[in-house]
Design brief:
Layout: E1 16-19, H1 23-35, E2 39-44, H2 64-69, E3 73-77, H3 83-94, E4 98-101, H4 107-110, H5 115-118, E5 126-131, H6 146-152, E6 160-161, E7 165-166, H7 173-197, E8 201-206, H8 207-213, H9 216-225, E9 243-247, E10 253-257, H10 261-270, H11 284-298, H12 303-312, E11 317-319, H13 323-328, H14 330-334, E12 338-343, E13 347-352, H15 376-382, H16 387-395
Parallel strand pairs: 1-2, 1-4, 2-3, 4-5, 5-8
Antiparallel strand pairs: 6-7, 9-10, 10-11, 12-13
């Protein structure tokens, strides 16, 4: 398949992706590809589609998170459990560049839609499977979500305080960092290799593997120092007073990142605590005493006063912004990381901007998140189905 509507112009213009995923990891991956110009065809179950469509809070009808994860995509509904539905998907896959799926290992094999099956008719196909633990190994069939993958990978203990135990991180680190970004990187590399060889391949993405790969900094504590890093016990995960969060007089917070000696010197001078200059990275009780002294001093001014003073002296001290403040921040606005798009039902819909800036092939918001089954007729007609055949598929429940 190739674009026929004049859309595109991005770095991935002409690349067709069949996206079978639901929820966050696959959706964020395929939206990155769509923003870069790929035509992403979201293949959904006819009975309600992506689970995320119903996830609260809702806008008018659609889920807010669905609207933030599915722009620039088309929606078709295919019943992959029916023989006719399988045939439809196989026909679409013969002309696709990428298939992206997020089922547990073995599901696509049972459906007869595995990479081995689909590549028989399309040797150029790139097939990317995102799963919790990967396609092999003792946990390949285990259930899990973001928190489980962080726990297995040894990363969850980095959050919170060692005395009180780990805390749930505020971002879906394994889903996005271990899943979405690793999958997108793998797909882009496979497309590059295919351009040179003409051959597709299978990409096995384990979200747990992705988290393990992110342990380069803290994993070194254990691998090279036989130190078990836990929240609050190592310099950059809560122990070092020079790298932490402090309350201010107005009950708001600042984040201090004075890792380098010159920043630490400036900060100690700013808050008039010359005795702290002598020890940049204290440990144990000395760290607690130093943190208490800094905390007391920070309570003498409100947040924005401290930030203004730090800006004047070039100190990495930042306001801990609320979502409202972040979305209104001049830097976020300048980088156009909050935009809007017009939706036929929802009206003006907020959209998070493009994190990747290209000089020649900029990302673009070509279309709003699709309504369920919105593009059934368009995609199937392009694949060679007649109006009568499409209606027959609809009547038998294949689409």
């Amino acid at each position: 398949m190739t674009h026929t509507s004049g859309e595109g112009g991005g770095a991935l213009d002409g690349v067709v992706v069949l996206d079978l995923t639901r929820l966050l990891p696959g959706a964020f991956c395929s939206q990155l590809l769509a923003d870069m110009g790929a035509e992403v065809i979201k293949v959904e179950n006819p009975d309600g589609g992506d689970y995320n469509r119903a996830w609260e809070p809702l806008a008018k009808q659609e889920s807010g998170s669905f609207l933030l994860l599915n722009r620039n995509k088309k929606s078709v509904t295919i019943n992959l459990k029916s023989a006719s539905g399988k045939a439809v998907f196989k026909r679409l896959a013969t002309k696709a560049d990428v298939v992206l799926e997020g089922y547990r290992p073995g599901v696509m094999d049972r459906l007869g839609l595995s990479y081995e099956e689909l590549c028989k008719d399309n040797g150029r196909l790139i097939y990317c499977a995102i799963s919790g633990f990967g396609q092999d190994g003792p946990l390949r069939h285990a259930v899990g979500h973001d928190l489980n993958y962080l726990a297995i990978a040894g990363a969850l203990q980095l959050f919170g305080d060692a005395k009180e135990g780990p805390r749930v991180p505020g971002l879906s680190i394994a889903d996005v960092g271990g899943g979405s970004l690793m999958a997108a990187t793998g797909i882009l590399a496979a497309l590059f290799w295919r351009d040179r060889t003409g051959k597709g391949q299978f990409i096995d993405i384990s979200m747990t593997d992705g988290v393990v790969a992110w342990l380069a900094l803290h994993g070194a504590d254990y691998l090279f120092g036989q130190i078990e890093p836990r929240g609050g016990e190592r310099p950059f995960i809560g122990q070092a007073p020079c790298y932490g969060v402090y309350a201010c007089a107005d009950d708001r917070f600042v984040a201090l990142g004075a890792i380098e000696p010159h920043f630490w010197d400036r900060f100690c001078t700013l808050i008039d605590l010359p005795e702290t200059l002598r020890t940049h990275y204290p440990q144990d009780e000395a760290a607690e005493i130093q943190r208490a002294a800094i905390s007391e001093r920070m309570l003498s001014r409100d947040r924005d006063s401290w930030v203004a003073l730090a800006d004047e002296t070039d100190i990495p001290l930042s306001p801990v912004n609320s979502m409202e403040e972040a979305f209104r921040h001049p830097q976020i606005a300048h980088r156009r990381m909050l935009q809007t798009i017009e939706h036929p039902v929802e009206g003006h819909v907020p959209q998070l901007g493009f994190p990747i800036k290209f000089s020649r092939t900029p990302c673009d918001m070509r279309a709003p998140p699709p309504q369920l089954a919105e593009h059934n007729d368009l995609i199937l007609a392009r694949a060679g189905y007649s109006v009568r055949e499409i209606e027959a598929l609809r009547k038998e429940g294949a689409i």
